[in-house]
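Sat 14:20. Reprocessing the chain from the morning session after the first attempt stalled halfway. Input below, unchanged.
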Amino acid sequence: MIQLVINDKNNTVYTTWILKINKDSRKIINKKGTEVTYYSYFSSFPQELYDFLDIKEDSIYLVKDYSEDYGIVLTDTEPTLPINSVKTKLITRRKNQSSNRIPTTSFTLNKKLFNDIEEYNQIKFILHPRLKDKYRNKLGLISIKLIK
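Finished this time. Tokens:
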């Protein structure tokens, strides 16, 4: 779901996407011979962000930015600073028939960055148009927050 949120305080319009977090499980037999279930969490990637970001090799970077209060920052450029970041592959779920359309993709939410992800069921992408993304060195910062 796409929303436009107006912040009257600084006269800015934010674009937000709220998407469902999906859970995937797989069962593996370990060396001891016992069956163990592993869970991974993933979400769709907003197709509108393909035009906004310069995505190469179907990869994005999720950066935990402690200096700001935005939580996780999504960027298309690998951070050079020694910070907590994860390179995430965009997985094509459905290729669109037309060559000028963007395929439907999803990405895995890494437990290294998202603590207690089991308790959440939605993810919120927020495009801050006036903030500068210091990793891409361009205007427009994309932050991610989990919603219960």
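Residues 25 and 39 are 4 Å apart (CA to CA).
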